[in-house]
Amino acid sequence: MVSKESRKEIRVKKHMRIRNRFSGTAQRPRLAVFRSNNHMYAQIIDDTVGNTLVSASTLESAVKSELEKTNNVDAAAYLGTVIAKRAIEKGIKEVVFDRGGFIYQGKIAALADAAREAGLEF
After folding, report:
1. Helices then strands (H, E): number in the chain?
2. What is the model's pTM?
3. Coil, strand or helix: which one is 62?
4. Sign of CA dihedral 14, 12, 94, 57
5. CA distance 108 to 11
6. How far, in Å, CA of 113 to CA of 122, rounded?
7. 60-80 pLDDT tens trace
């Protein structure tokens, strides 16, 4: 019987391929996105040191109170604006976008577009 790889294993392999291509630096950190069934998480990481510079998620009470649901495209777009505003406050303008092995459509694309509109460049 042929066994089929789980979606999670496939996504993790894609993410590793993406991570081998680029990493975040102090001048241009990495905007990493993770999405679960219920929430979305975004963080800006300097990989040379291994520090998270800025983070935001739909679990935070400030973000969650603004949203009707935490797992739809509107929530992803709002999270994109929040992460971009926090990054610009810290002086980060350019980032490398890490979609985390997820397909660039729907929630991931909405977060990226909202972050671009709020002032991040990638």
Report:
1. 4, 4
2. 0.92
3. helix
4. positive
5. 14
6. 10
7. 999 999 999 999 999 999 999
